[in-house]
Amino acid sequence: MKKILVLHTGGTIAMQENEHGAVQPNVINPLYSTIESLSTIASVIVDDYLNLPSPHMTPSLMIDLARRLKERVKEDQLDGIVVTHGTDTLEETAYLLDLILDWDIPVIITGAMRSSNELGADGPHNLIASVRVAASDDAKGKGVLVVLNDEIHTAKNVTKTHSSNIATFQSPQYGPIGIVTKRGVFFHHTLSKRDCHPVTQLTKKVALLKTYAGMDDTIIEAVAATHIDGLVIEAFGQGNVPPTIMPALKTLIARNIPVVLVSRCFNGVVQDTYAYEGGGRTLKEIGVIFTNGLNGQKARLKLMAVLEQSADHSIIQELFYK
Ligand SMILES: NC(=O)C[C@H](N)C(=O)O
């Protein structure tokens, strides 16, 4: 029987709703009874590591979590890992772990949209499905996977798309890479390559700003005044920004602060298509770094990881095309 670690970090999956409809953390993890029922699937060990709502998660806590997982793998000779997590920042933790952990052991991240005592609570079902995926031979070597609502998503492509629906996690443009049914765990495609940056710390400060019609440079200048090490801009469409912010972007790049471009559209990639002021072509000319379909929150984590390895803009650009 496979040995699977279930490590809790908190989130709605570990919360309860009170008589006034307020959802809050529980002292005792409500998943205990579900874990007992897993004995026919795997030999499960539990680590009550954290009990945080996921808006309280930080990149440094994510690094600590990666360290803890590495220790547990060494000490316990695990066949797979399931991490329970709040859904609000789940995709960020999943993606950063995916960048850091360069092994073939399945790591599954799951959560819930309904707390443990709500009608139709999805936590227990998601936990069981995740342990089944973690115990599947086919999950090996696929990087960190996100399992909710009987779907298996890659950490790279998954995003939270709905504020409350249990089918919230989707991989726009690509879809899930597998499904979980009563009879088995089925993968139907895989990522063509994995992207690994096995950093052990994240010391750089990277901001994320979204463009909007009529944006001026005051907000960029205010952010730049806080001594950032990098900036991610969520641009319009194929990668275009208002012309009014071009001077501020040029100043940042001249100060050797990388500016990384993603799209506010959740499908497609940014490219140097448009040649008008603020268009992708003019952004490329001033040295803005283009990404390959990552969303803003993930590009920010990747830039933090990459900046631990190099400050050279052409190396950073190469790493973002991966
Ligand atoms: N469904 C959830 O888990 C949302 C919660 N606010 C959290 O991320 O902790």
Q: Can you walk me through this structure?
A:
- The chain has helices spanning 32-36, 59-76, 90-100, 123-134, 218-224, 246-254, 280-285, 296-307, 313-321; strands spanning 3-10, 15-17, 23-25, 43-52, 80-84, 107-110, 144-148, 151-154, 159-160, 169-170, 178-180, 185-187, 206-210, 230-235, 259-263, 289-290.
- It has 322 residues and is an alpha/beta fold.
- It has two domains: 3-187, L-asparaginase, N-terminal domain (Rossmann fold), CATH 3.40.50; 206-321, Rossmann fold.
- Helix 6 (246-254) links the parallel strand 14 and strand 15.
- Strands 4-1-5-6-7-8-11-12 form an eight-stranded mixed beta sheet. Strands 13-14-15-16 form a four-stranded parallel beta sheet. Strands 2-3 form a two-stranded antiparallel sheet.
- The chain is 28% helix and 22% strand.
- The radius of gyration is 20 Å and the shape is elongated.
- The protein is built from nine helices and 16 strands.
- Asparagine (ASN) binds next to loops.
- Asparagine (ASN) binds at residues 11-12, 53-54, 86-88, 111-113.
